[in-house]
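Reopening this one. Same input as before:
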Amino acid sequence: MRLPATALLLLALALPAQAETDPATIKAIEATAYDYVDGQLEGDAARVARALHPDLAKRAVRATPDKDEVLGLRRMSKDELVELTRQGVLKTPKEKWDRSVRVLDVTGNVAVARVETPWFVDYFHMGRFGDRWVIVNAMWQPKKQG
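Same output, byte for byte:
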């Protein structure tokens, strides 16, 4: 259903305005996301580990679900992701790095960010614990290669 322009304007006026986020907060969120992605590209397992909550839930929608799963997800824990990094699965020469981080929203102690590399797109739910931001949930989508 498509809303007329006047309805969209009224809806926009009814929504609360998003407060400006402190630039230092944005930088801290970006730094955590870059620890995650750059750590993978460097093969630095410790750098990746520090960006992740111990109870990380990393998931991707399965293109072909298992026969027992109607809504199939590929699941990965913090330990699995750190081990894959240790093995150098995504290790890439620095001159081939093409990655970005965009903070999409911040409300209090939670944030949403989008990370993109030549191989995948990740959407992060992040939490602030004291002065530290970490990735709590991640949904990712591999990119077609070639």
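So the earlier flakiness isn't reproducible anymore. For the record, The helical segments are 5-14, 23-42, 45-50, 78-86.
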